[in-house]
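Worked Example 4.2. Read the sequence first, then its structure tokens.
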Amino acid sequence: MSRLAIVTDSVAGIPERLIRELNINTVPYYIHRGSEVLRDLVNIDRASFYKWLPTATQLPTTASPGPGDYITMYQHLAEAEGVEEIASIHMTSKGSGAYQAAMAAKAMIVEILPRLKIEVIDTLNASMCHGWMAIEAARAVLENKTLPEVVERVKSLMPITRMIHTADTLKYLYMGGRIGRAKHLVGSLLNIKPLIGMEDGVIVPLGTARSRKQAYQSMVDMVEKATGAGTKIKIAYVHAAAQEEALKIKELVEGRLQVVEEIMTELSPALGVHTGPGTAGLCYFPVLDDKKG
């Protein structure tokens, strides 16, 4: 175990294989479903959750981990694994309280473990954009980078890592209060597919399309315009109970863009509560420096 550890949250959506291979430590979110209190990806899995969600008469609520959850994780890493430094990487503070809770945990754990050094990072992003930053941070650790170098790596990705998602409806985002600046798209006709992204930590509208096929084509156009033709990119295809749709996006991307790494992943239940089943999209960033990429 390295003396430097990466901590992130279940909502990052990182595939289990990469979590194991890169020694990423995840803290689960909470899902309140009626009287049940579920821990994201611990006692609720993706398949059963997405099968149930369309039948729900009342949308579950979610909660970020509390300071105690992070203290438990930080203390375990320090005392059981010999970790001396931690980079704690979280989704946008404008859509979740995870960053604030981790900051509170950092302040409190000083009394218990005064020598433990923790850097808490607000990625101002979500989904696999958040996930990519944790992955690249963990890779930097395996390359024996220092904590300041790991933090700098994450911060260098923040302005260039982008999300584009679409769904048949935005009602889940709206009902969960996570709609950001895309409220006007909620009332769109059923045959209009909204495209949403994230800017400065909040959901923003990117446009609409007449069909999923057109929406996916628009995604590829947007990526190509943002990165430039021929630019190498790393991309995650993200979905919520819609892998066939994510594969359609992948097919379009492969015909147009130069992908050097790809990941296929499904949103965790705690994030899927807000997107609803059927969501599909991508999270990507251009590889600007091969030494870093």
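Now turn to a second chain, presented in exactly the same format:
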Amino acid sequence: MRGGAIRRPAVAGLFYSADADALRAEIGRCFTEAAARARRSSGVATETAGGATAPKAIVVPHAGYVYSGPVAASAYGRLAVGRAAIRRVLLLGPAHRVPVRGLALSGAEQWLTPLGPVPVDTGAVRALAELPGVMVDDWAHLQEHSLEVQVPFLQTVLGRFSLVPVAVGDASDRKVAAVIDTVWDDPATVVVVSTDLSHYMTYEQAAQVDARTAAAVVAGDPAAIGDYDACGCRPLRGLLEAVAHDPGRRPVELLDLRSSGDTTGDRDRVVGYGAFAVV
């Protein structure tokens, strides 16, 4: 399926508010809660150093905002210092709805949210479509939430930017890293990887598994992240491989690590959420 001019939101009103004013308020509450947690926390780095530039990449969860929005906000707050410099976002997340062999680009010219349209960098899409295992397939994006829920946050912290949305299916770490490598040296491009962590474990089990996954991310060890440790394991491992390609070997910083048991109080079957920054 070749995309039309506009990719319309599929989960507005479900994962986040469909009303623009209510959505702005909802995102504002996420940032307020993230800032409050940063002040309370002593064991997780959350503050941006004075004069620091924006991260080269962030990793954020993609559940409904009531569940994971404040965790995501801890990473998006770090991008705010790059508002004047960041002009493009390479956004990668797992394909939940449609089986994808490789990586699926969006053929749309714009992505619409309740906050307005975001232009797609169609030139970058055409270039990436030449890579092995990469294709344009809008069926993969039609109902997919993992990418969509990130766009209102990006609109809030960046203002004007272009988007390169990539739904990652059955793709090797090497092929994902090859896509990221194409933009890694561009100072005007930030990489955003969308993934949740463990799924449907008890609160105690999830805490153990997610702590191990977070340690692997910070250590830059993609081989230590299993297929069931994160729903976006493939884009996450691909990012870590791209980080390893960087001669400067940028460090990966843990910003927040929680689960739905922390955000909702229901600890029987939880989903894990983590936020990280490649600084």
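Notes for the reader: Residues 6-41+55-278 form a domain with the Protocatechuate 4,5-dioxygenase; Chain B fold (CATH 3.40.830.10). The two ends are 37 Å apart (CA to CA).
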